[in-house]
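Let us walk through a complete example step by step. Step one is to write down the protein sequence. Step two is to encode the small molecule, zinc ion, as a SMILES string so that its atoms and bonds are unambiguous. Step three, shown after the inputs, is the structure prediction itself.
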Amino acid sequence: MAKPAASLNNIVVCRRCDAVLSKPKIEPGQKATCPGCSALLYELKKNPMERTMAVSLAGLLLFFPAILLPMIGVSAAGTHNEASLIDCIIILLNTDYHIVAFIVFLFTIAIPIVHLLAAFYIAVAVHFNKISQSLLVFFRSYHVLDSWTMLHVFFLGVVVSIYKIVDLAELTVGGGLMSFVLLLICSTLVSVTLDHHYVWEKMEQALED
Amino acid sequence: MKTNAKAMGLGCCPCCHKVVKMQAETQQCPRCHRSFSVRKINSLSHTFAWTIAALVMLVPANLYPMMIYYTLGQPEASTILEGIATFIQFGMYPVAIVIFIASFVVPLAKIIGLFILMYHAKRASKLTVKQQGQLYHIVEFLGPWSMLDVFVVAIMAAVVNLGFLSSIEAAKGITYFGLMVVFTMLAAESFDARLLWDAQDQKPKTDDSQSQLNEAKSR
Ligand SMILES: [Zn+2]
Ligand SMILES: [Zn+2]
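Step three: the predicted structure of the complex.
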């Protein structure tokens, strides 16, 4: 029969297959995976808070040019038109595609901004040991939003659009696209640098005392 | 032989992954204060409802045009499949393949995949439970990528706007398509993958070689 685990702190449960496993000892930079279903159990990262702070702050600053500056434009027979991310949404609203406008706004602006803000706030708070109850809400929303950011998909959309437009008319590339690429890199790096396991353990310690 | 957390009366918080003893059907996580249960409540009915909703949206998404292209005042509407056919006509095979996979194969495959998963959560099957887990992982991973077409139409409608010369407008199909993608993502999210392993455990097993407390691999 299964022996009851000595302490709940020494075991991990796989979220995909529900297997109970003894907690593996890993070094920063290593990952622990489930032997049954190969899902990631947890990983330890190097300097998680410093890196997350830097990357998420850069991402937040890049948001303004990425949204407001024109990304791509076309010109043909003397007329020229260019559009930024926010223009895409405004035009959808003007043509009464409210649901689509909302979907685009939600997945390319609202969720990525809140996601980056949450990451930044958490990194700063944990780094300077200013952990409060409100941090729980932020980190929980960070988890929920993780699978709903679509900056990478939007970027592929821009690439496909460029490919389509090149045949139609002359194409110009604006500063918005460059900022967007950098923003995409920052937002991807945040998921790479932020160590969930580390943050939760820190918070648990801090909120217990 | 059961080594799963449910059988041991343990629960794993879906948010912060803390392992706790389950004292009630639903309880609050001591670390992140989120309330959760051993398995997502009514997981299958939620998944089923969202999948059906997505399936319903798939039909108008493919029948109605996604965008209307005006050249010199002449409108030309195209559905997803017509758009792909145009790309093939012009010999633009890479784009044709990307769009075909992203906006036709993937949405359909996701819906079929979800039905397969729901079926297997109820009974044991020929697919090994590991393969089912991978299928779930794929469905989950593909979720956001299907939004590609919606973004392309949004960008094209904003950029290609040269008045009488040529302009592009979004069309009805885009709303259904966007909703379909959101619904499949919600379906995947409400599906509790652990049910697949539960179904596996219910059928008589032949190999008892597994150790009680597996050692986790580290790499
Ligand atoms: Zn597992
Ligand atoms: Zn928790």
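Step four is interpretation. Residues B 13, 15-16, 18, 29, 31-32, 34 surround zinc ion (ligand 2) (CB under 6 Å).
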